[in-house]
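Q: What would this chain look like folded?
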Amino acid sequence: MIDFSLTEEQRAVRKTAREFAQNEVDPVAREHEESGEWPEEVWQKAVDAGLIGASIPEEYGGAGMGAVEGTIFAEEIAYADAGMLAAIGTEFGTRMIAEYGSEEQKEWILEGVSSGELIGAMGNTEPEHGSDAASIETRAEKVEGDRTTTSPAVPEAEEDGGEYVIDGVKTFITHGSIADYVLTMCRTGEEGHSGVSAIIVETDRDGFEVESDIHKMGWNASDTAQLRYDGVRVPEENLVGYENMGFYQLMEFFEQERVGIAAQALGIAQRCLDEAMDYVGERTQFDRELQEFQAVQHDIADMAVKVENARSLTYRAAAKLDEGEKPTKLASMAKLYASEVAEEVASDAMQLHGGNGYTRDYPVERQYRHAKLYQIGEGASAIQRNIIAGELLDL
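A: My prediction, written as structure tokens:
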């Protein structure tokens, strides 16, 4: 029998996240979406409240949340505004460092992110390579002797140790312009999956450049940039895990990331459903409330069924993660379905709002623009269908 009830701790997470979303995120979401200004003040409040680094282990200053708690948190903040959630979520790359990093890297990065001293970014996507993460071209050449750099991880390292010299371009990098480090996926070996490594690159290194800001349809409160690495030198101590195994290390966390994306999409869908229900209960046409028309009732019913189905898939996948399983098929199902439901329900909500839905005076317009991204990020819908089919057909 499947138990969908939340524990007392999980209910407390929902209460805390909902209050933060209502009090700190919702009131300024539209302002930051329109200005494109990173909400530093909201991020700082999240740091002060201990809400940054939800999945970082407690011994390194994080909340140590499991997948279900993380899903609750993401859903509640995205309900207020998904772009703001992306903006204050500064722990990119920490999952891999927590699992594969050295003790020095964990103390440096994990404690730094949890305390608000560091802002992280993940450098995977390239101009020519998005979903095809095994074909990245950014290269890190290892050179031995006469080290010119040191690492915060091991500042007293021997000066004749090795370095990586990195050249390439990364794009669509969240927090690219404001990050203190970028966990950068680099080619260190042969072509294909078995030649990629994960390397921490501090953004104050010589040769690192924010090449351009990226102007987006939605998520405008969240900084997004294209980055260039021009002979950036970092010490070999900045390698996370094993050389040439970075692709496989990255794959270890795609289930968690996809469940997280599903949770955010779920938050968008629920907000749009609630906004639509409020609107049709207040708006009158032909001397009747909109909710009295059967066609409108059917639209609301269909939207609600989609949202509940998305919630079931998402929380089931999260629960499997907490049970120690690797729910590849279920995570991709949750990501695929929840992201498509978010776009569909947001579109339906706009339609029910009529002309008002197309204006910036109502939140459904902003949520609709946010929703489209979820069908693209962390593996586009076509990729999720490939994964699901592969699991079902044992391909």
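Residues 254-282 form the longest helix (29 residues).
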